[in-house]
Amino acid sequence: MRAFLESAVFKFGGLVIAGAIGLMVIGVVQMRNARVDVYPEFTPPSVQIQTEALGLSAAEVEQLITLGLEQDLLNGTPWLESIHSSSQPGLSVIDLVFEPGTDIYAARQMVQERLTQAHALPNVGTPPIMIEPLASTSRVAMVGLSSKRVSLIDMSVLARWKIKPKLMGIPGVANVSVFGQRDRQLQVQVDPAQLRSRGVSLTQVIETAGNALWVSPLTFVEASTPGTGGFVESSNQRLAIQHVLPISSPADLPPSCRR
Questions:
Q1: Does the reported pTM lie above 0.85?
Q2: Among the four given CATH numbers 3.30.420.40, 3.40.50.450, 1.20.1290.10, 3.30.70.1430, the one describing domain 46-133
Q3: 69, 97, 104, 201: which could form a disulfide with 45 (CB 3.0–4.6 Å)?
């Protein structure tokens, strides 16, 4: 058999070389017209849901956000094959994998319809968002910040308001997630004995602390609707009253208002 193959190669050598050259030409032409991608798309259709809850531990994120989304809202979505979740400090991530061949945009539509009911969950974080479709390569880079002089809160402000917008502005970037983010908090430690002796209720403490913030997530305090302090009504018109907070320096402004 080996001698037969060797004789065939010598006999039809020109034909073999011509065939090889033809295959190379076809390959070059097809490569120039092919779609550019790093790797072929081999993963099944999937959708990722992320919910930020700054200040919450991983256990609190799991109990207050992840379980409600995973078990009550997203479980039972049409064409769903499997669902996985991950709870991290300040961030909930839920991955939904659909059956092979499922139209990714139809699957996203089904998920979006389920997310319209997310208002029934505890209001402890931002509304859940659906991440743009990702390639099979998924996350391509991870950047870590560390400093011996800058606090975690200042680094979180830098990552949220400087680094993330710059990266999101790069064409082709679908999402930038910030893990371990720390936000400024107002913590009030209440002494029940002092409250009783001074005749102050816990509700008064909560309202006073909430109104001391620029914007408060508490819906029953005035700071929950910044800039609206009521109105003065006369016989022919209604004049709105706006809150004007004293600002001694640009550092008192929130990062979104600084220039």
A1: no
A2: 3.30.70.1430
A3: 104
